[in-house]
Write a structure and sequence with these properties.
The complex is a heterodimer. Chain A is of the alpha/beta class. Chain A has a single domain (6-208), classed as P-loop containing nucleotide triphosphate hydrolases (Rossmann fold). Chain A is built from six helices and nine strands. Chain A has a five-stranded parallel beta sheet with strand order 6-7-8-3-9, sandwiched between helices. A four-stranded antiparallel beta sheet of chain A has the order 2-1-4-5, with helices on one face. In chain A, helix 4 runs parallel beside helix 5. Chain B has a domain at 50-94 and 191-328: Orthogonal Bundle (MetI-like fold). Helix content of chain B is 77%, strand content 2%. In chain B, a hairpin with a 4-residue loop joins strand 1 and strand 2. The longest helix of chain B has 34 residues, at 58-91. Chain B starts with a strand and ends in a 5-residue tail after the last helix. Classes of the chains: A alpha/beta, B mainly alpha. Chain A binds chain B through residues 48, 51-53, 73-75, 77, 79-81, 83, 85, 87, 89-91, 100-101, 104-105, 148-149, 151-152, and chain B through 222, 224-225, 227-235, 238, 242-243, 246-247.
Chain lengths: 210, 328
């Protein structure tokens, strides 16, 4: 058993005709790892498998925080996800997006409120809490998605090319916010990207796939 | 020849556009013209006083009320069925999916009389034992097929359970002389030649249209929303209720409206299964038929115009919802 936070042991994934050959990875607690590789090498497939969003891997096992989660449902894994297309729930305000997880898990209302206010302060979202996603800029939407993913204090934060599509100024700004939040929340992070510059700026370690 | 462009070696000849445009305009004008003439023919056949007279008739007022009640009940039932079925077809890939998809279109393709006749036979000629036997047989075939194709274990177990349960029910009820109609009548829901039968006769086709609408709606909503909701602790059902359905609300209304409109136009199955008894099972479509039968053409035309008005209003609602982001 690894002492690390996330351990992938010869994980093999089949998605249609695509097969991700046995892949192993060990990420220590609080470490931020960037996963890089060419398009189509299976980065997103692997990330979705770690999050439990695909059928279980055809081989290998996934251990998170010392517990095997290979066949656990996504919600039981303690993973926060910021997907590539952000996927903020269109009918919910920024406050409701961040509250979504804690309320679902039955947190006390005071606890939920304190968590939302703390995250909103850290992410600079105080003035946006009553807005719907359609009224947010690209950078703001990403900060909200980060807040939503961190609200439940996950063991692992997964970011799937979460900065793609931003102009350079917004990109650097959101990158800084992500880095700051990873340190402040002391969360282990796996960041999928195809940008070497971004990987080096955010990660403690870069892992190449493909 | 309208234009010619001289290149180095050859002359490029471009034929004029107008004959093709004229053809398009002619076809659409002919079609819309036919539709307008049909409506116009009804308008010319009936006067205000005749229309007013027939709308004051107590039997016709009962028919209008029954039409609204049965169409609304059918629409609600159709939405109740189409949301889970549309979601299943949109989100899950499973063996036999194409077959199930085709089965669900059968009510749309069948001649309406056959839907009514099938219901009539099912409720009055087939014993409950035979019904259970058929269901057990269907589940058995599906289970064998699922095992042969290495299908999902949970689904196969469910099917095997169905074989056992329906098989036992078939055995227990064998020898009984009662029909399905006797059983539903006994528990207070008579169907054949009864207003409830109108809803059942409208339901198969209306639900098929609603399922198509809901599947298209769910297809247009990214599954990523559910995936994110699931990482936050939702199961599939919670993700559907909390995240997807609010996004699909316009599609749900559109599916209900579509089912309502289909139910309004249903005639054959109602006539065969529920009958066309004045003041009892008569709905607008059957009223038109009855008015023609007694030679009251202006009355039939007035009711036709009322139905056209309702159908156009329904279509406008669906189009409005489609324009506002609903999927139709």
């Amino acid at each position: 058993m690894s002492d690390g936070m996330l351990m992938l042991e010869n994980v093999t994934v089949q998605a249609g005709n695509f097969v991700l050959s046995p892949f192993s990875l060990d990420i220590g607690e609080g470490e931020c790892v960037a996963l890089m590789g060419p398009s189509g090498c299976g980065k997103t497939t692997l990330l979705e498998t770690i999050c439990g969003l695909r059928d279980g891997p055809v081989g290998g096992r996934i251990v998170l925080g010392g517990m095997e989660v290979t066949n656990l449902s996504p919600g039981a894994r303690g993973i926060g996800l910021v997907p590539q297309d952000i996927a903020l729930f269109p009918s919910l305000t920024v406050r409701e997006q961040i509250e979504f997880g804690p309320k679902l898990h039955g947190w006390e209302p005071e606890e939920v409120k304190a968590r939302v206010e703390s995250l909103a302060g850290d992410l600079g979202l105080e003035k946006l809490l009553s807005r719907l996603p359609e009224g947010l800029s690209g950078g703001e939407a990403r900060r909200v998605a980060l807040g939503r993913a961190l609200a439940l204090r996950p063991q692992l934060l997964c970011l799937d090319e979460a900065l793609s599509g931003l102009d350079e100024a917004r990109h650097d700004e959101v990158l800084g916010v992500i880095r700051k939040m990873i340190e402040r929340e002391r969360v282990t992070a796996l960041h999928v990207t195809h940008s070497k510059k971004e990987a080096e700026a955010i990660a403690d370690r870069v892992v190449l796939m493909g | 020849m309208e234009k010619s462009i001289r290149s180095d070696q050859k002359i490029w000849r471009v034929r004029p556009e107008w004959p093709f445009l004229l053809f398009l305009v002619f076809v659409i004008a002919a079609y819309i013209g036919l539709l307008l003439l049909m409506v116009g023919a009804n308008v010319l056949t009936v006067s205000w006083s005749q229309a007013s007279e027939i709308l004051k008739d107590a039997d016709i007022q009962h028919s209008i009320i029954l039409t609204f009640v049965t169409c609304t009940a059918t629409a609600i039932l159709s939405v109740f069925v189409s949301v889970p079925v549309g979601y299943l077809l949109s989100r899950y890939q499973f063996r036999g999916r194409a077959f199930v998809d085709t089965l669900l279109d059968i009510p749309i393709l069948l001649p309406p009389l056959i839907v009514g006749l099938s219901l009539l036979i099912l409720f009055n000629r087939v014993s409950p034992s035979a019904c259970c036997g058929m269901l057990a047989g269907g589940a058995l075939i599906a289970a064998i097929w699922g095992i042969a194709r290495k299908g999902d274990r949970i689904v196969i177990r469910f099917l095997v359970g169905g074989v056992v349960a329906f098989g036992l029910l078939s055995l227990v009820s064998s020898g009984s002389e009662t029909s399905l109609e006797d059983i539903v009548s006994e528990v207070g829901f008579p169907m054949t030649f009864h207003p409830l039968g109108v809803v059942l006769a409208q339901f198969p086709v209306a639900a098929a249209f609603a399922v198509r609408t809901m599947k298209t709606t769910f297809d247009q909503i990214s599954p990523r929303y559910e995936e994110v909701a699931m990482t936050l602790g939702c199961n599939r059902g919670q993700a559907l209720l909390r995240v997807v359905l609010p996004l699909a609300s316009k599609g749900v209304v559109a599916a209900g409206t579509m089912a309502w409109a289909r139910a309004l136009g249903e005639f054959g199955p109602i006539l065969i299964f529920a009958g066309a008894t004045r003041g009892r099972t008569e709905v607008l479509a059957t009223s038109v038929f009855l008015e023609i039968n007694i030679g009251n053409l202006p009355g039939a035309a007035a009711l036709s115009l009322l139905m056209i008005l309702l159908a156009v209003s329904t279509l406008l609602i669906v189009r409005y919802l489609a324009g506002r982001g609903g999927a139709v």
